Amino acid sequence: MTERHKVDARGAFCPGPLMELIATLRHSQIGDEIEVWSTDKGSATDIPEWVKKVRHELVSVTQGDGYWSIVVRKAK
Amino acid sequence: MSGQPLYVLLCSGEREKLQMAAMMASVGAVSERRVEVFVSMNAILAFAKKASNEERHHGGRFSQLLSEKRAPEPLTLLRQGKELGELKLWACSMALDLLGWNMEQLDDELFDGPLGLTKFLSDAEAGQLVTL
Fold first, then answer.
1. Which of B27, B51, B14, B4 is nearest to B132 (CA)?
2. Would you call B84 and A50 a contact, using CB atoms and an 8 Å cutoff?
3. At A63, which CATH number?
4. pLDDT per position in chain A (76 positions), as tens?
5. Do B71 and A54 touch (CB under 8 A)?
6. Model's pTM, two decimal places?
7. Count of domains observed in chain A
8. What is the mean pLDDT of chain A?
9. What is the rounded end-to-end Cα distance, in angstroms, of chain A?
10. Radius of gyration of chain B (CA)
11. How would CATH label the architecture of B6-131?
12. What angle do CA B9, B77, B66 make, to 5 degrees?
């Protein structure tokens, strides 16, 4: 049974949102999704780049009301 | 591990450079790169167990902004890099000698030991070297 975890990193500066995502991934199961909320503009490009590099899966990147929502699926 | 190892030679004690070194090292380490940081000169003062805020936070305009906006502390980022990736920190043995310090005076959770510059530079030939 996969789950979706939410990481509210709004207000955190680079690389805080990425670090919070990684810490959550470590305690997740393969197939789980992690939704990161970030007000750091760089997260919208940095997190997808990191996901590609370490071979997880990017589910979506969307802009909310003053923040970005980035959803990542744990692939390994 | 993938990609070239990253070697950071950190000499400046300015907060801006400590911050950038810590950001590069921690992001590199969590991106499946082996990272080694060699801390020397004024930079080592910021890693003392009893370092004052002045020793950890002096610098220019961005030093002020980093403090005012409560950006993550460089030492915190380095701890995260060590916890989540392969990151090693070395204390310059010459800097320790000049200060009359030993490893007990440094943040003991962060450092992997003392090291000489010759050994660090020799190791760094295998990767990308950045100096701050």
1. B14
2. no
3. 3.30.110.40
4. 789 999 999 999 999 999 999 999 999 999 999 999 999 989 999 999 999 999 999 999 999 899 999 999 999 9
5. no
6. 0.88
7. 1
8. 94
9. 16
10. 14
11. 3-Layer(aba) Sandwich (3.40)
12. 95
3 state SS of B131: strand
Give the position of tokens 């470590």: A26
Distances (CA, A) of B69 to A37, B51, B63, B66, B74: 19, 21, 10, 5, 14
User: Which residue segment(s) compose the domain that A68 sits in?
Assistant: 4-73
- Beta-sheet strands, E only, within chain B: 6-10, 35-39, 87-92, 113-115, 128-131
Spot the catalytic one: A3, A11, A13, A14. Answer: A14
Give the minimum alpha-carbon distance from B57 to chain A in angstroms, rounded to a whole number: 17
Residue from B31, B62, B73, B79 whose CB has the most chain A CBs within 10 Å, to mutate:
B31
Chain B residues lying within 8 Å of A14, measured CB to CB: 23
Choosing among B1, B4, B15, B27, which should be mutated to test the A contact, i.e. which has the most A CBs within 10 A?
B27
Looking at the DSSP assignment, which residues form a beta bridge with residue B97? none
Tell me the C-alpha distance between B1 and B73, whole Å.
26
Whether A75 has its CB under 8 Å from any CB of chain B: the answer is no
Rounded CA separation B22/B116 (Å): 21
